[in-house]
Each structure stands twice: as C-alpha cells, then as structure tokens.
Structure to design on (364 residues):
C-alpha cells in the first residue's frame, strides 16, 4: 500500500533556506500565583536533568511534599519582583530577542529572532512548530546560559531533540554549548561593572555570584564549576582587579545535599563580620534579571549582609538588553552561523499538495 501523501508544513524539497535564531531561557511562571508557580515547578523540577535522583523516589517527594509547600512560598517571592509587563526573566528575554532582531535587520540580514522557555511559555516545542510552519529551515539554538551545565544547557538541547522526534522533515540545527569565555560576553560584563563604578565608585570587594548546582555534578564531569571560575578570572582581568579584590560564590541552593561552595549568603555575612564595609555583587551567569537576582540577591542577601554589619551593598544588574550585550549576542550568533547565507531569501511558495510539491521540485 502506498503511504498517504500528508506533507508536514513546509514541504522542504527545493525550499529556499530561511534562518532563525531561537534564544532559549529557563522559563518562569505565567503569574505570581500558587497554581501558576506549581505548574511551573512541576515541569521544572520534574526534569531529570535538574534533579538527578531515581525517578520514582523523586516523584513521590516532588508531588507528595515539595509541590504542596514550595509554590506558596515561591509565589510570594515572585509577587515582590513581578512587573506590569510580567516576570522580569520573560520581559528581559523578550527585549533581548527584539533587540537582536533589530541588529540583524539593520545589517540587512534575513534572520528572524525568537525566544522560547525551557519550562513554561512560550515553550521550545511551540516556537519550533511556529518556525517550521513559517518555513524556517535553519535554526540556531542559543541558550541564555553562558556556562554549560547538564542541568540547564543540556536540558534545552533535550527539548529540541524531543521536538525533532515527531517531525519528518527536520530543520538544520546548530547549538551553542557555552560562551563563558567569549570576549564579547566578558566585555559586556566588564562594561556593566565599569558603568556602575563610574557613578558609585569601587567597592572593597566584588562578589561574582553564580547559580549553584549539586557538588556531585562536578565529580560526574559537569564543566559548569570550571567555566564559572574562568568567567570570573576573565572578568577580573578585564576590570584590572587583583585576586583579593573579587571572589566567586554560588547561590540558590535547593534541598539538603551539598552544592558548589562557597555559598553566597554565608560568604556575605562572613565578609561583613570581617569588617568589609562595602560589597558590590554581580551575577555573571544570569543574562537576564530574574527571581534569583532580584529577590534572592538584591533583597535577601543584601539584607543579610547589612544585618551582619556591612554598610553598603550594591547589586549590579544583569546584562539584560544592554547594547553591548545585544551586539555580543549578534557576534556570537554570526560565528555559529558560519556558512549559512545571510541574504534575504527569494519569496518562494511552499507546496501544500503532492502536485505542487512535484512541480516545485522539478523547478529546482
Ligand atoms: C532543584 C535544582 C535546581 C538546579 C540544579 C538549578 C540550576 C540552575 N538554575 C539556573 C537558573 C535559574 N534558576 C531559577 C529558579 C529556580 N531554580 C530552581 C532550582 C534549581 N536550579 C528553582 C526551584 C527555581 C524556582 C524558584 C524557586 O522556587 O526557588 C531562575 C529564575 C526563574 C525566574 O522565574 O525568575 C533561573 C534563571 C541555572 C543557571 C542553573 C544551573 C547552572
Ligand atoms: Fe535554578
Ligand atoms: Fe532562589
């Protein structure tokens, strides 16, 4: 029996290549409410890349305990940072994508930029469906994480591969693994700090706080820890700092296991107790401000430092949509698109029937 002709849109044969960049961030709840946060956490914490303990045990703990308790606590935190436009993580990611789009357009390059979230909305699958329906045949996946971690970067890739499982005609994908030492990223960070210091002067200590991961992942070969230290060293060098003027810490510990140390908040308290009166803190691993920077650092950690005797604490915002960072994203994308044509594609109809497909195919 002949298979039915049921082409997926678009029918790729003879199709003019069209290129897109998909900027993928972690994701955030749709609203700062308990049900929305529960939905988000269920998807996020249900990912085996994020919590690597045996499935059945973890599912029992997650659904039996964590999703009953944590959503209310987290929703209250989200409420303190929520803006009129929505969750900061999503607002900044959206702005980054729009700004990057503007750079491609200003250069006359026919590249479309979209963003997607690994957990929550818009999902990676929904954005890939849309790109495919619009005829995009080349997609560069850019995770919002400069440092590679199995818990984040690999999970974004998983979502793309998973989407591919249900498609016959796949676009040509490229993936950026990491850019923790890319000069444009380091320069954008350095500029962020210098701009802050131009107004406020220099602190006694610059703390570079990265999101933590379980220490076990380091022993299992995850390069995240090393990449954080390399970013910190390069940023310190770019700023002309000696090794005593900055330090690396890890924040956002989850659960009881040992995570990467030193932990951010206890370090800030120790610094205050040692008589360090002014600390500036930057979170180089987060490209967009979010709950972890705006609430955990700018509110909670600051309060802990001041309470322990510190006098001045400045949180230096993330790269967000700073012009230097958007230019950096452009350079990074271009490098990874090497060989892909950048000219505007000819308008070419997509086949919607077998007859049309054969006609188009014959022309090419
Ligand atoms: C449970 C384990 C977690 C791992 C491992 C983890 C790694 C990790 N996360 C980020 C970036 C972000 N995490 C954010 C929030 C967040 N992270 C965890 C847990 C783990 N993260 C939780 C449960 C939450 C949700 C908030 C809460 O309930 O505490 C965010 C902010 C999201 C937002 O909506 O603003 C980011 C960004 C990285 C980079 C990383 C590993 C390197
Ligand atoms: Fe996290
Ligand atoms: Fe947190």
């Amino acid at each position: 029996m002949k298979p039915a002709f049921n082409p997926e849109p678009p029918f790729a044969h003879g199709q003019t290549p069209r290129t897109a960049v998909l900027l993928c961030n972690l994701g955030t709840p749709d609203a700062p409410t308990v049900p929305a946060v529960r939905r988000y956490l269920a998807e996020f914490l249900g990912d085996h890349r994020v919590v690597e303990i045996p499935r059945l045990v973890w599912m029992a703990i997650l659904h039996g305990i964590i999703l009953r308790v944590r959503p209310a606590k987290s929703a209250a935190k989200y409420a303190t940072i929520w803006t009129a436009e929505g969750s900061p993580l999503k607002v900044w990611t959206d702005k980054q994508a729009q700004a990057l789009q503007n750079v491609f357009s200003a250069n006359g390059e026919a590249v479309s930029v979209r963003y997607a979230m690994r957990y929550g909305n818009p999902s990676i699958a929904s954005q890939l469906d849309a790109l495919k329906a619009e005829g995009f045949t080349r997609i560069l996946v850019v995770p919002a994480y400069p440092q590679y971690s199995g818990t984040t970067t690999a999970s974004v890739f998983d979502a793309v591969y998973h989407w591919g499982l249900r498609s016959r005609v796949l676009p040509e994908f490229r993936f950026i693994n990491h850019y923790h030492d890319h000069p444009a990223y380091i320069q954008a960070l350095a500029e962020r700090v210098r701009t802050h210091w131009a107004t406020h002067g220099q602190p006694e200590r610059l703390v570079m706080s990265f999101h933590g991961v379980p220490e076990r992942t380091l022993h299992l070969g995850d390069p995240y820890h090393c990449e954080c230290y390399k970013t910190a060293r390069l940023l310190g060098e770019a700023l002309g700092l000696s090794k005593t003027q900055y330090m690396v810490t890890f924040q956002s510990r989850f659960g009881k296991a040992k995570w990467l140390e030193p932990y951010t908040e206890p370090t800030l308290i120790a610094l205050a107790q040692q008589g360090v009166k002014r600390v500036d803190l930057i979170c180089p691993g987060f490209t967009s401000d979010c709950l972890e920077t705006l609430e955990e650092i700018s509110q909670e950690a600051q309060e802990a430092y001041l309470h322990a005797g510190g006098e001045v604490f400045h949180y230096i915002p993330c790269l967000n949509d700073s012009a230097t960072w958007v230019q950096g994203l452009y350079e990074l994308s271009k490098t990874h698109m090497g060989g892909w044509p950048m000219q505007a594609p000819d308008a070419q109809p997509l086949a919607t029937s077998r007859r049309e497909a054969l006609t188009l195919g014959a022309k090419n």
